[in-house]
Structures are given as structure tokens and as C-alpha cells.
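Practice problem: predict the structure.
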Amino acid sequence: MASPGSSATTRTNPFAGPDPVLICDFNILGRVPAVLDHLTSTYYAWKTYFSLVFREYNLRDHVDGSVDSRFMDDDEEWMTIDATLIHWFYTTISKDLFRTVVSAEDDAHAVWTKLNGLFTDNALQRKVFLHDEFFGCQQHDSSVDDYCMHLKKLVDELRDLGEKVSDELLLITLIAGLNDDFGNAASNIPLIAEPTFSKVVAYLKLEERRMRISRTRATHTALTAGTHDGGPTTAPAPQPRPGPVPFQAPPHPGEGNMP
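Answer:
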């Protein structure tokens, strides 16, 4: 490896390792825009983003176990990069996960293995929970985007556990969970040529937009009609009920003939 003070532009050897200066100055939050957390379905995205970074910058030997860091103590560059990767991991996980895995003795491979293990261990139990949530998923009042993305996250989590969900099963589950407003749209989905998850999501989002516009027009039409008719009829104000006629004594005989 080149010296720590070298720049990426001077590293002409294609077999050389990554430039420590480039790695240390790397904005990991810009390349891994996902925070790993037990409470959210971000594991698949988090792992995928990091896997791409490892491939792009030739860092896989730090996490795949092919190099034992105990024999790399004399390689300052390798150890610097390894420490940077640990910092990346700790920066992109929740505080609870940090407290779970943090250890001053771990190398990057150990931290990576711990974090992945938290989401892939107890695979059978996790599959049971995910299957139950997947097949019971309903749209209810959620938007099409939120509903479909939630289903996709469940599929990704099952895939991480070695459980592949076919596109056909994903579409069947998606259609079955749509709310009543999308009854007609659900009937039209089988008419889509070679339907895929992305095609169906795009179609449903357009249908959702169409229904929103229709509701807006209907509301506007009702308001306009009310204005042209002079507005809603106002009931006349209730008139006070007449009170009892006051009693008047009859005139005394002869009073009316008095001059």
C-alpha cells in the first residue's frame, strides 16, 4: 500500500489496496442513507449500501474474514482503514444497537458479523413472524406507496433469511390487501401485460391520483351547485307563541250609559 500521505491520483497500481486518505475522508452517511435499527425494516437496505461500498473501494477483505487482523498489526494503512470501517458501522446504527455490539477489542470483521447476526440469527422464529405479518398485511388507510413499500420490506427481510418470495405471490398478497376503494383497480391488474411489482405499483399510484382528483372535482361541483341555488335553504325563525289573552271584567251595568 502507498503511504498515508499519498493521494488517490498517484496510486497507479491496479492491484494496490484502497487509499487510506480517501477512505478516512469518505462521507459514509452520503453513501449509506439508512440507519440500522431493530424497530424498522432497514437491514436489507443498510447491508446492500455497505456491500456496494465494499466492492467499489476494494474493502471486502476487511469484513469477509479472508484476512486475520491479528496478523496485520504492522500494516498501519490496513489498520487505519479497518478502524475507519468500524467508525462507519457505529455511525450508521441506532444507539440501542451500538450499546449491544460495541467492544474496544473488535476489528471491522467482528463488528460486521455481530450486526448481521442480530438480524439473521434465530432464523426460524423470525421467518414465522415475518410470514404472519406478510400474509396479514392490509392497506387500510395507508397510501399506495406506504402499503406497497411495507410489503417489499417484508419480502427483503425474508430474503435475508433465505426465504425467497416469488413475484407472483407478492402480487397476489398485494392485491388481496388493497382496501375497498381499489376494488376496480384490483380487477384490472390481471389485464396488465406481464405484470411485475413495479408495474403494478405504478398503476395503483396513478389510480390513487385519479381517485383523488375525482373526489376533488365532486366536492367542487357540489359547492358550485350550492352557490348557484342560492345556498342551502334557511328555515324561518320560529315565531313566538301568542300568550294568553288577559282577562277583562265585563262593564258594570249602566256604566256604558253614563254621560
